[in-house]
Each structure stands twice: as C-alpha cells, then as structure tokens.
Design brief:
This protein is an alpha+beta fold and 850 residues long. It contains 21 helices and 28 strands. It has an 8-stranded antiparallel sheet. Strands 23-25-26-28-27-22-24 form a 7-stranded mixed sheet. Strands 7-8-12-10-11 form a 5-stranded antiparallel sheet. α7 packs antiparallel against α8. Bound molecules: flavin-adenine dinucleotide (FAD).
C-alpha cells in the first residue's frame, strides 16, 4: 500500500503576523510557569517567550512561519528527555506532544506512518493492536517522542541493529522557509535524499518533523539471559560476547570490577512469570530508589562511601541470581581483619599502583577518523547467534584462565557460590508499559514453546544465567532510576576493549586516592550499534560501541560530575575518536565534528539551505554546529525548597569536611588542557601510572564549561580548585624574559613536586589587567616536558593563537582575567597564596574556562 500523501501545504502568504498569532492563540502559552522548559533530569531549563502546543500540522506551520517572520528562534521539544540544553531557547518552544496520531499501520508491508510527537510508549500498543507489529530495536526507555528519538540518533544495542532512525522510510518536515512548506523526504532521488539523510539525526536544526514513515517487524518476544563476569575476563571476550546474541548490552561496575551482561534473542519460548509484587517493590523501589538515593546523598559529603555503596548495590540488586552471602561476608571479614584474601569488598590498597601488567601494555593508539573503515552492512561479520531456538548446549563453563590479570580487588574465591537451588531474583524492573492484554495472550498462545536453557561458554560468576522471556518492548526497556547527569560516547566498535582498559586504568588510580575524589557513580553502560546512514549518526562511519557514564541526582540534588565526565569524554575523544551522543552535554566544536563526521559540512550546507535565517538555531546549535559564541547565558531563576535546602546542606558539609575530615587541608589539584587540544585527538598525554603518588592527576578532558549549566551544579560540594593564587602581571614579554624563565623553572620544578601542576582559586576577585597589577583568580600552567613528563602543549595553539613549544612556560587564565585575550603574551607571576606557596613566571597563552 503506498504511503499516505504528505499533509497539504496551502500558502500562508495572505496571513499577516497578527493573523498567525490569532490562529495560534488557542495553542499558545505566553505567561506563567508553563513557559519554562525543563529537561527530564532538571539539569537545564529555559524560559521561553512563548510555548506553542500545536494539535495539527497546520498549527506547526503557523508557528514556524511566525518565528521566521519575527526573527525568533523556534525549537521543537519532544518529551524533553535529552540531558543537555539541546531544546532550550529564550524564544519559542514548539511542544509537539499533541501531534500524536498514528495515521496508518500496514501489517502486510510491516510499515507505519505516525505523527512525530507520539510518545514511543503510546506507539507500541497501537502498532501491536493494528498490525501485530513492533519496533525492531529500542533504547532503555520508551518515554521519548518518535521524532525526538530520531533526531538525536537514539539507539538500543546490538551489533546488527543501528539507531532507531535507520528504520525510517520517509519524513514529513515543516521547513522554516517562506510559507513554512511541508515536504516529504526519503531515500528516493526525487524526494530530497540529502535533506532526508540530514534530518534522520537533525537535532531539531533542519526542520520540524511532523510525520514519520517507518518499518517495523512482526511483534516478537525476547529471551534475556543475564549473568556477570569479572571485568578482566570481559575485556578479553567482549567481542565474542557482543556478537553472541541479537542484542547485547552490558553494565560495568568499575568500583567492584564486575560486568553485568544481558543477552537478548528473539524467541518463541513461553513468557516467564514476573517477580512477586513484594519482591519487585523491595528491589525496585526500596533498594533501587530509596536506599540508593539516601546513600548517594550521603556520598555527596563522604565520597569514600561510593565504592562501598557500589558493592552493596552490586550484591543486593545488580548481580542476578541469589544474593551471594558467603562472598559478601567474606568481603566484610577481609576488610575488618585486614586480610588480603576474601570477598571483593573494595580494597584500595590492592590496586595496581605501578600500572604494570597487561593493561599498561595495551597499544593505545589514537584512532584517526579518516582511517576508519567504511563498513557496509554486509561487511559486518555475522554474529554467532542463531535466531531459532536451540536446545543444544554449546560448551560447558570455562575454567578461570591462568593468565588472569591481577584484579583490583581480591577475586571472589575464584569460583561462583554453589547453591543447591537457584532462586532467581527479579532482574530489571518490569516495564509499566500498557499493552493490550488480549493480543499479548493471543501471541503467546500461538507461539509459546517449551523453555530450554543453554549454558554460557564463558567464565561467568553464576552457576547459570538468570533468565526471562517477555514481549520485546518489555525486555528492551528498563527503569532508569531517578534523574541523572549522563554522558555517552560512541567509539569505533573495534576499540571497545582498549577503551575499556584505558578507562579502567584511570578509574583504578582514582579509586586508590584517599576519599575517592572522583566520586563516580555506577555503572558504565556498554552498548553496540551497527553502521547507519544518517549523516550525523555516531555510527555513520561504521559500527560502534557506546560507553555511557551516569551521575545520579539523589532527591534531585546536584552532585559533582564535571571533572569525572570531562576525563571520561576526553579519554574517549582523544584516544578513540569518541563521538558524543548528540542529546548529551559535550564540548566539541564544529572543527572537531568535521574530523569525526565525513558529511558534517554537507549537513551544514543542507541546514543553511533549508534555514537560511537560522530560525532553528538555538545556543546548542550555534555552539556545536555553527561555532558561534553564544551571546547570552540562560538564566536560572527560582529554586525549589529542596534545592535551597541542598545548597545549605552542601555549605555545612563543606565546612565539616574541611574542619574534621580533610586534616591535610591540601588542595586537590586539577589540571586543564588548552582548548586547542580539543582539535587534536592525539594530543592528550597519557597518565603516567608510575607516579609515586599513586598516579599523577590525570590530564582532564578538554571540557569547557557550558554557558547554560544548571545553577544547581555550582552548589555541589566541589573540593577541587581550592587554593588561592595571586597573579601578578609583570610586564609584556620582554628581552629579559629568558632569564626570568630560567629562574622560574627551578620554582616550577619545586611547585610540581608539591602540587602537581596547578594553582587555582575560586575567590574571583580580580583587577583589570595592565602591567604591574595583581589579580586574584585561577590559572593553569603547563610545565615543560622535562619537569613533569606529563603536561605538554603538544604544539597546539592556545586561545591566544600562538603555538608554543613543549619547553615553554605558559599558562591559561580564567576567563575573567584572560579578558578576551587582553592579557595574551604577557608574562605573569603566578603565586600560590595558600599551602606551600611557590611562584612561577609564565606567559599567558590560553583561556581556562571553568
Ligand atoms: C532516562 C533516559 C534514558 C535514555 N535512554 C536512551 C537510550 O537507551 N538510547 C539513546 O540513544 N538515548 C537514550 N536517551 C536519550 C533520548 O533518547 C534522547 O535524548 C531523545 O532525543 C529524547 O527524545 P525526546 O522526545 O525527549 O526529545 P527532546 O529531548 O525533547 O528533543 C531532542 C532533540 O530532538 C529535537 N526534536 C524533538 N522533536 C522534534 C520534531 N518533531 N522535529 C524535529 N526535531 C525534533 C529537539 O529539537 C532536540 O534537538 C535517554 C534519555 C533518558 C532521560
């Protein structure tokens, strides 16, 4: 059956601005709280001039035409589930959730046509009811709108499954051109395939998607096997595991060096009964929400709790199968008695301090995007799963290999606990999706066959995997818990093992630091996606592995996350050409994307063609796609009592921490890299694992502060950047600067021993910069290679534009003191005013945004 024609687009020429406003009036909000857009995680908000909630394509056209004529930005908002400011604007928000009709479902051709604003959770039952169809792959939730999910390349997991947008056959788009035309675009030559490929992951910047034509598949059930492995085992076998089932997703718990693996295959086996209501409540509400939130709140002030909390959650919730009491108590005993053997309770003294061993020897070569293989779908090697249900056991469980790496924790007795009867605990919470019961039963009656189980061919930590069967959508989706900061990066598939080892090595050293200053929550999500064709899809150049970090916001309170994410994203970007998930906060610029995406400029050209007046360009688009400095910062107004309470608690906690816990009062040292390093994926130095201090402070990722960050975040207890420096602007670079540098190299050397590399402050009092004046503020300076062997300029130009040799003593000044480049090239004396003191003369070369 041919698809329905696109909605008609009669010209709007006769309508004045006043007419457009009048026609939009019934769906316009101009005053009150409803003007505030907040994303799901409440990490970003913006107050719009007006919010339109159209119920028809015609109303979308009016809104787009009005924006164009009045030179206002308009941003499509789906369900607001993107964890960044991608939707935010101070102009017009177009809330599309009212555009939620399913226009056609064709069970024979396995296609459907729906409006872009429909929530996926509402789409599922309609596809099931009207065509016995289901989407082939889904992410962890179904709370996004269809067009919103497409627009950021939302993905599930599976080496032969691409982003959800891959399944789109055509898109109906309202363009911000005169008269706001509606166009239908597709892969077909006569339907603007360029616009189609740009709009498949269009970030709301190439038009408003009002209709989506899509392929689906006959409704299916999935069988899920969940089991766990030691991290070192997993990194050796990740590929074999990834390719062993249709959908494989994994959760790595770095604090306990364990990986939970979920393998999904289509099946005809009978649906397994869910957990009892009580068990489900205890696991998914009491443990996963309340206890988790309380512990994470406490860890805001006592971060050293986090590894223990991770272990607690691992033991009682995350690992499938029965609680391993023996292992748990063995761990406690080992901890209490100081014994080196016992359970895998966090034992930071056993960490691999010298970095020797297989991890340190892995070849960490930066991946040049230009050299990435052009993998066609047919080139992707066939995963070794069998779509039909097999009753044969392929091999028995392997024994623990001799060449196992020294684990960060004492291994759990090296063999799983053997219980006579394995009582399965509930795994991920049952989805609360509402699907038509009668049809579900019908599917079940037609297809269900007897269950058979296949043993795992890997050294897993259980006797056998936990197992369940249900409708696909109910298995794909799971409860993501409470609001969170998230970051996700897509690296080339083949780099998965090396990237995990790199992250592991970094995290291991962080864990060894007293008090666990990194404060990382858990887990790291590991998912895979096949190559697809959207120009801005992170897997547009080849199959990829998505690695995602999470920092939860217990009771919606802020937690520190920037330093952690900065290093996480920086490592993946710099060493593995990691591409950030478009929906999440990141710091990449058009130049970075140009290197990562071969069609980036094509995308920009299409964008310019359809939106020459930049009606769809908000700050996110200007910052990341167009490279324009945002002209205004979003104001964060009004805080709820909880947030105010959180700020007060934080202040008290910081005081208590410094008075009672942080006896050394030694500043936590942080470093930064010039923004120029962003452009050079190979420029990040590797952490020197042999530092006497248990690992030098790693080079943090080149994350620059978002101009639109939540104000809440600043209330987080941040112990970095705690020492005060005064910066004296001595003179502009002069003839005697060489001798000054010579003298100061000695000082710098001393300072490096004492403080690693940075002098920084938050006092923020500064005087404007002319020669001889004193500033108080924050600076980051870079030591010559021979002094530290870690921080190098690597020939990159800083914000001042000059390339500096690795011998140069240069610094980056905080934005206010940098003063738009006014102090570039000046020689300044940086003096630490607390701690051991020390000073160094350096030349201003870069800006250091905080
Ligand atoms: C708890 C949680 C779990 C998640 N799980 C996953 C996951 O498993 N996999 C994954 O890849 N991502 C995941 N995400 C991210 C999420 O899928 C994306 O952020 C998605 O874009 C959100 O869709 P939305 O409808 O909320 O769109 P929004 O966040 O409202 O908008 C996202 C982008 O789409 C644009 N947009 C929205 N509607 C339209 C339209 N009609 N026309 C044109 N542009 C439009 C917006 O302008 C914006 O640029 C998750 C997010 C959360 C909060």
């Amino acid at each position: 059956m041919p698809p329905l024609p696109p909605p008609s687009a009669a010209p709007l020429d006769d309508l004045s601005i006043h007419d457009l406003e009048r026609l939009l009036d019934p769906v316009t909000t101009k005053h009150g709280n409803q003007l505030t857009f907040r994303n799901w995680a409440t990490t970003f908000r913006s107050d719009a001039a007006a919010v339109f909630r159209p119920r028809s394509v015609q109303q979308v056209r009016y809104a787009v035409e009005l924006s164009r004529r009045t030179n206002r930005t308009i941003r499509a908002a789906g369900a607001g589930h993107s964890p960044s400011d991608i939707v935010c604007t101070g102009d017009y928000i177009l809330d599309l959730k009212g555009l939620d009709n399913v226009l056609d479902v064709d069970g024979d051709s396995r296609t459907f046509h729906a409006e872009g604003g429909i929530l996926l959770r509402n789409l599922h039952p309609i596809l099931l009811e009207r065509g016995s169809l289901a989407l082939s792959s889904l992410g962890s939730i179904s709370d996004q709108t269809l067009a919103g999910a497409l627009s950021t390349s939302t993905h599930g997991s599976g080496v032969t499954f691409s982003s959800i947008s891959t399944y789109a056959t055509f898109l109906d788009i309202v363009l911000p051109q005169p008269g706001a035309p509606v166009v239908r675009v597709s892969r077909s030559e006569d339907q603007d395939p360029d616009l189609f490929h740009a709009a498949l992951c269009g970030l709301g910047a190439v038009g408003i998607v009002v209709g989506v034509g899509m392929r689906a598949e006959p409704v299916f059930k999935l069988e899920e096997e969940i089991f766990t492995m030691r991290f070192d085992e997993f990194t050796k076998r990740w590929q074999e595991i990834a390719e062993s089932a249709e959908h494989v997703r994994c959760w790595w718990f770095p604090q306990v060096a364990r990986v939970k693996i979920s393998r999904l295959n289509r099946t005809n086996k009978a649906v397994t009964p869910g957990p009892s209501a009580l068990s489900s409540y205890l696991q998914n509400v009491v443990l996963a929400k309340h206890i988790h939130a309380v512990a994470l709140s406490a860890a805001r002030y006592l971060p050293a709790l986090l590894p223990y909390h991770a272990w607690f959650m691992w033991t009682f919730r995350e690992q499938p199968g029965p609680v391993r009491w023996r292992e748990f108590f063995a761990g406690i005993w080992a901890r209490v008695s100081g014994s080196k053997t016992g359970g895998p309770w966090p034992r930071i003294e056993e960490l691999d301090q010298d970095g020797k061993g297989a991890v340190a020897e892995l070849p960490f070569h930066p991946v040049d995007p230009a050299t990435l293989p052009e993998v066609r779908p047919s080139d992707v090697s066939s995963p070794s799963f069998d779509r039909t249900d097999s009753n044969e056991s392929s091999s028995s469980k392997l024994t623990t290999p001799d060449d196992m790496l020294t684990p960060p924790y004492t291994p759990p007795t090296q063999s799983p606990v053997n219980e006579a009867v394995v009582v399965d605990r509930p795994v991920s919470p049952a989805s609360d999706l509402e699907l038509p019961t009668s049809i579900v039963e019908e599917v079940e009656a037609k297809t269900a066959v007897k269950q058979e189980r296949t043993p795992m061919p890997w050294p897993i930590l259980e006797d056998k995997p936990t197992y369940r069967v249900d409708l696909g959508v109910k298995i794909f989706n799971y409860d993501c818990g409470f609001p969170q900061y998230t970051y996700e990066s897509c690296i080339p598939y083949e780099s998965t093992g090396a990237a995990l080892n790199e992250l592991h090595q970094w995290h291991t050293h962080e864990l060894a630091k007293p008090g666990y200053p990194l404060r990382a929550h858990f887990p790291v999500e590991i998912r895979y996606a096949a190559k697809d064709e959207a120009w801005l899809s992170p897997t547009g150049s080849g199959p990829g592995c998505y690695l995602g970090a999470i920092q939860y916001r217990p009771f919606n309170l802020p937690v520190p996350y920037r330093e952690h994410f900065a290093r996480f994203s920086g490592t993946l970007f710099s060493l593995f050409s990691g591409k950030p998930h478009w929906a999440k906060t990141h710091t990449l610029t058009p130049d970075d994307f140009r290197k990562l995406y071969p069609r980036f400029d094509d995308f920009l050209a299409v964008r310019e063609r359809v939106d020459p007046k930049r009606v769809l360009a908000n700050e996110y688009v200007k910052r990341h796609l167009l490279g324009e400095v945002p002209t205004e910062q979003m104001e964060h107004q009004g805080r709820r009592w909880k947030e105010r309470f959180g700020v007060a608690l934080t202040a008290i906690a910081i005081l208590v921490y410094y008075l009672f816990f942080d006896s050394s009062s030694s500043p936590t040292v942080s470093t930064a890299v010039p923004s120029a390093q962003l452009a050079n994926p190979s420029s990040l130095s590797r952490v020197s694992p042999s530092s006497p201090s248990g690992g030098v402070e790693p080079v943090p990722a080149p994350i620059s502060p978002m101009t639109t960050q939540s104000s809440l975040e600043t209330a987080a207890p941040t112990f970095a950047h705690s020492d005060v420096s005064s910066l004296t602007s001595e003179s502009t670079k002069s003839a005697d600067s060489t001798s000054a540098a010579k003298v100061d190299q000695k000082t710098a050397s001393k300072a490096s021993t004492a403080t690693s590399s940075t002098a920084s402050s938050r006092s923020g009092q500064e005087k404007s910069g002319t020669s001889g004046q004193t500033y108080k503020g924050e600076a980051t300076f870079y030591f010559p290679t021979e002094l530290t062997n870690m921080m190098q300029q690597n020939g990159n130009a800083g914000a001042c534009g000059d390339k500096n040799s690795d011998d140069a003593l240069i610094c980056a000044l905080q934005t206010e003191i940098y003063a738009g480049g006014k102090n570039c090239g000046k020689e300044v004396q940086i003096t630490r005013t607390i701690g051991e003191g020390g000073s160094v003369a350096v030349t201003v070369a870069d800006e250091c945004p905080r």
